[in-house]
Amino acid sequence: MATPAIDVQNLTKSYGPVLAVNDISFQVQPGELVGFLGRNGAGKSTSMRILTTWQPASSGYARLAGYDVMYESMEVRKRIGYLPENVPVYPEMRVREYLTYRAQLKGVDRHGRGARIAYCLERCRIKEVQNRLLATLSKGYRQRVGLADAMLAKPPILILDEPTSGLDPVQITETLNTIKELGGDHTVLLSTHILSEVEKVCDRVVIIDKGRIKFDDTLKSISDREPTVVAEVRGPGEAVTRFLQDQPELLSVAAKGTDGDLTTFEIKARDPRKDVREELAKRLVGRGWGVRRLESRRVSLDDLFSAVVFREADPAATEPAATPAA
Ligand SMILES: Nc1ncnc2c1ncn2[C@@H]1O[C@H](COP(=O)(O)OP(=O)(O)O)[C@@H](O)[C@H]1O
Ligand SMILES: [Mg+2]
Question: Which pick of 23, 100, 128, 162 has the fewest CB atoms within 10 Å?
Answer without folding.
Answer: 128
